[in-house]
Amino acid sequence: MFALFGDEFKKFMKDKVKEDDTLNDSIKDFLQLDLLRNKLAHNNYAIFYFSLTVEDVRERFYKTLDFVKSLQECPKDFSKLRQLEI
């Protein structure tokens, strides 16, 4: 998922996700909602079976905010770490 930003950043994020269960769960929820959204938008939504309740979607949405927030913080943390190594 993070390989587009280079091997070093990919490793940094892989380690970060391993040690942070909240971030890991947040990414899983983000990807699940994205997959469901794509299926709903690109298939026949009139007959699409949606297994989650409104509460489930809402709960997952709010959990995904940890991932979205990390998209701002993690590159900064990675940059600081790299500067310390220099």
Concise summary:
The protein is built from 3 helices and no strands. It has 86 residues and is an all-alpha fold.
Radius of gyration in whole Å, from Cα?
Answer: 16 Å
Question: How many DSSP-defined strands?
Answer: 0
The mean pLDDT is 91
**What coarse outline follows from CA principal-axis ratios?**
elongated
Tally of DSSP helical segments: 3
- Summarize the main sheet: none
Distance between the termini: 26 Å
Helix/sheet category: mainly alpha
- Regions with little confidence, pLDDT below 50 for 5+ residues: none
Helix content: over 70%
Give the SSE string: HHH
> Which band does the percent of strand residues land in?
under 5%
Layout of helices and strands:
Elements: H1 7-19, H2 21-42, H3 54-85
Description:
- The protein is built from three helices and no strands.
- It has helices at 7-19, 21-42, 54-85.
- The model has no long low-confidence stretch (mean pLDDT 91).
- The longest helix is centred in the last third of the chain and has 32 residues, at 54-85.
Which features does this protein show?
mainly alpha; 86 residues
